Amino acid sequence: MPRKEYDVSVLLDYLVKNKYDIIVDVVSGEIRKPSEDIWKRISQLMDFKISPKNVYTIVKCNRFEVREKIGLISSIPQAESPNKPTNSNIDSGSDVSEQSEDNLLSFNITLTAEEWTNIYQPTDQYYKRSDNKNRYRAYLILKPNIWTPIMHTHLVEQTRLSCPIIYKRAKIYNEGNLYMDIIGHCPTCQSNLKGILNNKPESADARVIIHFSYIGDFKFCMSEIKRKLTGEQKENAIKKMIEQGQSAAFVRRNLAKNLMNFGEQEPSNLPSANALRVLKCKTIKQGLHNEDVEICN
Fold first, then answer.
1. Which of 86, 81, 97, 30 is nearest to 219 (CA)?
2. Could you tell me which residues belong to the region Disordered (predicted)?
3. Which of 19, 97, 161, 167 could form a disulfide bond with 70, CB atoms 3.0-4.6 angstroms apart?
């Protein structure tokens, strides 16, 4: 179910009233640890509409400018590292619009009717509950290992970023004001990705537009980490190497022509030649009775 809504002004009032229990050091800006009881107490005052961890995050990240309201000195911005590039423009494309902040990027991803049909078919995913009411809880999600490569390909086309984003979930809500949300993050620059689909598509042949926001130091991300080959991209690579006899280097070169522009950093969804060779080797071994047979590249 969607998260419960809470009154921000009421939450801020409780934080101000309990500021002496929250603050450890005014000058350094240190606050209580997430495990402290103060966060649980404020969550209880809010009728548990917001979790203790979320209360801590709001203060820690200075959301709603709460740190100034409770009397904490704003942290001094750190000097820019000389190792960071000074000129890192992003070719945002027609659907990308940068906000005034340098660390915020908003854009839309448009899925065709065929792409949405391939990834939609909601699947029940069971998770263990932390309470003792029920052992498991079921959520509706998009098809595992199918939706992530499609979504990431569109993201790279829109942003031209090299972030190897880890997609945590794509959760579907049958009831509420929100139909689907997507959450992910970059393990290198620690930027956070959030996608929202407000309404369910009206028909099976309609395009689906998902609104995304990406927050963090993504402009300075020079990650060389590659995303794992899954879904249609994996199947196409196997078909070209096994059935058509193409080498791993040749397959990678053709993928690079479609994914990259000249002079760009390699995107995270462009597999390495070694990863393609390993994939080819494992695929061939699956059909052998004796795994000791040597396989040529």
1. 86
2. 77-98
3. 19
Segment holding 155, helix H or strand E: helix 147-159
**Is the distance from CB of 294 to CB of 269 less than 8 angstroms?**
no
Q: What is the pLDDT of residues 7-47, one digit of tens each?
A: 888 998 899 888 888 888 766 778 888 888 889 999 999 88
**What are the structural domain ranges in the chain?**
8-70, 101-220, 231-295
Cβ atoms 184, 166 nearer than 8 A: yes
> 152-169 b/e with 16+ CB inside 10 Å = b?
bbbbbebbbbbbbbebee
pTM over 0.70: no
pLDDT value, residue 129: 66
So what's the pLDDT on residue 251?
A: 92
Average pLDDT of the chain to the nearest whole number: 81
Torsion region of 259: left, alpha or beta (phi above 0 gives left; psi -120 to 50 gives alpha): alpha
* CA gap 163, 291 in Å, rounded: 36
Distance from the first to the final alpha carbon of the chain: 50
Q: How many CA atoms lie within 13 A of 293 on its CB side?
A: 12
Q: Which of 232, 242, 231, 225 is nearest to 276 (CA)?
A: 242
Per-residue pLDDT tens digits for 140-176: 888 888 999 999 999 999 898 889 999 998 989 888 7
Two structure tokens written together for 14: 């409780």
CB neighbour class for 215 (10 Å; exposed up to 12, middle 13-18, buried from 19): middle
